[in-house]
Specification:
With about 80 residues, this protein is mostly helical. The chain has one domain. Helix content is about 65%, strand content about 0%. The protein contains 2 helices and no strands. Helix 1 runs antiparallel to helix 2. The longest helix is centred in the C-terminal third of the chain and has 27 residues. The protein is elongated.
């Protein structure tokens, strides 16, 4: 099931932006893989997987948590 973009919380949007940046960096690393040692490739892949798992956990908790009630008529 696809969730509309306007229903996604700001934390999930930030996490997906970080994953996008990490994906581009990881792709750049793999394109020049012969310039890096195996330890660096594994570390960067592990960091990217950590970002993915964190984003999935944030999205799951965002879906589970009830929405905050709207505050109508409240004056500042």
């Amino acid at each position: 099931m696809v969730v509309p973009r306007e229903c996604v919380g700001p934390q999930v949007k930030r996490a997906t932006a970080i994953i996008g940046i990490s994906s581009i960096h990881l792709l750049k690393t793999f394109i020049n893989a012969d310039a890096y040692d195996a330890k660096t490739l594994i570390a960067q892949t592990g960091i990217h997987i950590t970002f993915l798992l964190s984003a999935m956990a944030i999205a799951a908790s965002d879906r589970i948590m009830p929405a905050a009630p709207e505050k109508h008529g409240e004056h500042i």
